Request: fold
Amino acid sequence: MRSAEVVGVYLAFGTEVDLADVITEARATGKRLVAPRCHAGPPPHLTLHELREDSELVRHALGHLEPPADAPQVSVGAVDVLLVPGLVFDERGYRLGFGLGYYDRLIPRLRTAAGVVGVTL
Reply:
């Protein structure tokens, strides 16, 4: 995380861990933040978009907040570290989320050197 230039974060929904402090610290250290936008598909998928401090977030039909449609899209290949919400993770990194597979389709698209950090209570 210290050496990361582009950090993918999520905007907490429901019982997910709130990343507000992580986002504030990342901004304070000059990191570029990106957050997902959900698309119905098929298949359902995520795209990553600039998360600027002055961005007005929008509420998705599923209820979570996300960057607005006009927020610049960022290539998945640009991400150095991706923070991923989950209900549980096993010792091999497999995750149980909310069941639609959005992150399960996003993670394999990251560059091999990118870090993935599971976040749970």
Observations:
- The first strand starts at residue 6 and ends at 8.
- The two ends are 20 Å apart (CA to CA).
- The first helix runs from residue 20 to 28.
